[in-house]
Amino acid sequence: MSSETLAAGAGTPARREPRHGWRLFAIWFVLSLAACLVIWFVWYPHLPPGRMSDSASGQQFDIAVLAITGAPVLIGVVLYFSYAIVVWRARPGDDSDGPAIQGNIRVQAAWIILTAATVLWAFVFGTVELVVPAGAGGGEGPSPIWKLAGTQSSTWTPGTNTMLQVQVIGQQWVWTYRYPQFGGFESTQLYLPVDTPVEFHVTSLDVIHEFWAYQLGVKADANPQVDNVAYTTPKQLGSVTVRCNELCGIWHGAMYNFGHVVSQSAFQSWASGVQAKEQADGLLAALPPYALHYDPTVIPQLGSNLVKVVGVTGAAGYYYNPGNPVTP
Amino acid sequence: MAIEIQPERAEPTGRGPEAVPARPWWLRPGAHTGLIGAIAGYFLGHWLGNFLGGGYARSGLADTNDVAIVLGYAFAVVGWLAGLGVFNDLFAAMAGRPWPDEDRLIGREDPGLAKYFRYTLDHKVVGIQYLYGMIAYFLTGGLFAMAIRSELLSPSYHLIGPEQYLMVVGEHSTMMMMMMSSVILGPFGQYFGPLMIGAKRVAFPRLEALGFWLTPAAYIILLSAVLMGGFPTGWTGYEPLGTQATQGEDAYYFAFGLMGISMILAGFNMIVTVINYRAPGMRWSRLPMFVWSMFSVSFLQVLSVPVLVGACFMALADRTFQTSFFTNQLGGSSYLWEDLFWFFGHPEVYILALPGFGVVAEMIAVFCRKPLFAYKVSVAGMLGVGILSFFVWQHHLFDSGINPDMRPLFMLTTELISIPTGFIFLVAMGTFWKAKITFSIPMLFALFFYFNFLIGGLSGVFLSDVPADVTEHGSFFVMAHFHYTIMGGLIFAFFGGIYYWLPKMTGIKLNHTLGLIHAWTMFIFFNSTFLPLFAAGLMGMPRRVFEYARNLQPINDWVSISAFLLGGSMLIFVINFVMSMTFWRERELGNPWRARSLEWQLSTPPPPENFKRVPVILSSPYDYGVKDALPVADLNPPPGVIGAAYAPAGGVLE
Amino acid sequence: MSVPARAAALVVAFLCVVGLGIFVVVYYIGSATTQLPIVHYTASGGQVNVALQEDPQNDSATRPDWVTYYTQDPTTKQWLHTTLFSVPANTKVNVTIYGYDGCTPLRNNYWSQVQGTLGGTVTVQQYNKDNKPLGGPATESVINSWADCNVAHTFAIPAIGLFVPVASPNANNSVNNLCGSSPCTPTSGGAYAAETFSFMSPSHTGTYRWQCLIPCGGGFVDGNGGPMQTLGWMMGEMDVVSS
Question: C97 with C89: CB under 8 angstroms?
Answer without folding.
Answer: no
